[in-house]
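dumping this here before i forget
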Amino acid sequence: MPSSMIRIEGLTKHYGPTQAVKGLTFDVPRGQVVGFLGPNGAGKSTTMRILAGSLNPTGGRAFVGDIDVVENPVAARKLIGYLPESNPLYDEMMVVDYLRFVADVRHVPMELRAARIKNAVERCGLTGVVSKDINQLSRGYRQRVGLAAAILHEPDLLILDEPTAGLDPNQIVEIRNLIKDLGKEKTVILSTHILSEVQSTCSRVLIINEGRLVADDTPERLTAAQEGGGMVTVTLAHRHGGSLDAAAVRTSLSSMAGVKSVEDTEGEGAGTLGFRIHHANEDVRRTLFESAVKNDWVLLEVHRTHVSLEETFRKLTDARRAA
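structure:
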């Protein structure tokens, strides 16, 4: 059994004069849950459609397992469960009839169909709606039907393109939990614009922009690489109830070892001051407490802030545009 579930080598795709994917190369081992990110028009959906066998590349190769998706698309599709962004469904069919239809199209053996449908219905939380027409379902339940259809044939790889697009916050949490559960036993590549979803669901992040790969790492290492240090937000008051001199406090904070810059922020009312301290990789909080004791400050709040995945994404894609 090959160790890679996905292998993409020098992939390109042209739409007339527009080059949507430009020499994309990456590898996804079995068992990973990967967030596949990029701005609109970056080439995410094109890449996913090529992987799923619904679109041929202009150049390069894409493999699922060790199967070339262009040379042997039928064999590759047997390993794939695909939920496209549009999630096309037959609205006039009952949920159970639609799943029977998908099982037939997917050539699920007749003796296994009832058990496979039951499993998909239970895992995707569809037990209460199996006898309803699809056109009666909310968008959240329609996404569940799409996921159930994607896992009916028990694929090794799930390709999910914007699975929570258009859902309300409760539905997003439900689908996210379902994806986490599926990720325990399958390889998942997930495209989304909700970056908190990636941080809570994915063990690895691929970011593409303008058809090229610009980042590939864990969410934690990606954000750490962009930090170049950190930031502490602090709110101060005078220990004995007196007023603080903002300029003097700012000068004292700026003189602490490892501090790069200090910005004013809002305090918490009369007699308080707020500052945002940007520092190098060393932690300045111990020095901050020592300064507070020395200067008779009361630390009302000390909050350490890290660069978010959203900020990292914006910096990487903006930098690529500027290049």
